[in-house]
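Why do we bother with a discrete structure alphabet at all? Because it lets us treat a fold like text: something you can write down, compare, and reason about line by line. To make this less abstract, here is a complete entry for Glycosyltransferase family 4 protein. Read it the way you would read a sentence in a foreign language you are learning: slowly, and without expecting to understand everything at once.
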Amino acid sequence: MKVLFDHQIFFQNKYGGITKIFFEIFKKLDQERINYSIPLDLSSYEDGKIFSQFGARQINQVKPFSLYGLYKVTLSIFRKLGLQIPDFLLNKESGIQRFSLSREIKFVNEEVVSALTNNEYTVFHPTYYHRYYLNSIEQSKTKLVLTIHDCVHELFPEYYGSNNFLLRNREILSKAADRIVCVSNSTKDDFLSIYNHIPKEKVFVIHNAGDLSKEPVEGTQDFGADYILFVGNRGEYKNFEFLLKVFSSLSREKKLILVCAGGKSFSPKELKNINGLGLSDKVKHVSFSSDTVLANLYRNAKLFVYPSLYEGFGIPLLEAMSVGCPVFCSDIKVFKEVAGDAAEYFDPKNATAFCELLLENLNSTHKLESLRMKGYERVKAFSWDKCTNSYLEIYKELSKV
């Protein structure tokens, strides 16, 4: 058995979410001494650096005289002139950065295609949904495994545009795949409902995990008051504007800070909303570059809030539970699948009811302690070991065919 992974998600995202899943798979393959390859050196990935396998050259560093360099200069001019940066311009950053790295990405694409054409591996597991390899995999003996992390692009196309590459590619790649892994039963149901012509016999569920309990206990930034924690990106379906509205009411009753960890810095639109609600000194953004920092942000929070309208799984739910942070999340199907009875649920469209729920529970030490204890138990039902063993079983099965 020889497994090939590609580079896509590592150029697309910073550490976290999908990349975390693949790093756990790599770790398991190393432990089992199973032969696998990825055409990148990711040893410094948490520091934002990707190196070539063929030397110490950083290949995700964009040159100053490039479209991305011009883009950064344009943003700088907007800021110096005190002008509001249009949202459409901010949303283009990752695409422009990727375009400016197209030469490096094309070179790595060619390495993957060559390996598939030469049948050097028994299984290929791409890390995202570009289809540069499609012709070569169709002519190769190598088996294709595809992971579906959510169906947000299909269910919320208004946030991504009808010409989004993922919507163009996902169905085509799913047809070509020998096995499809969905990260939850909820995601599997959504996927098979949308792509009802895909044979359900080749679709499996492998749950993610999210245990940060082994991360060392360290102090975190002093925010000057107790804080509620929000983690991750704040795109539309993440329901962040709803959370700000709730917190605006809550902060008039309790001395609290809302800490937003990860994701990009607040956009001009978000800052305008925050300032308009009188929350400029009560809503903070912090970045983090390691699981240790994230674990301690959870540990020191009064509670963790997850107000999304949709998710494919919800790794932060388990991360919070694993270190004793009470969880409050949207009353949606996938969160109930993951959190069970170890979370307090709320209607993600009823701000008044959610504010009342938070006030009630913040005043109840017993309730918060009960959620902590239930969380410790619930997180035991999920593990990266169980997750990665399931992937290995699929790789082994396909390697025997």
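What the structure line is telling us, in plain words: The chain has two domains: 2-60+101-209+384-400, 227-381. The two ends are 11 Å apart (CA to CA).
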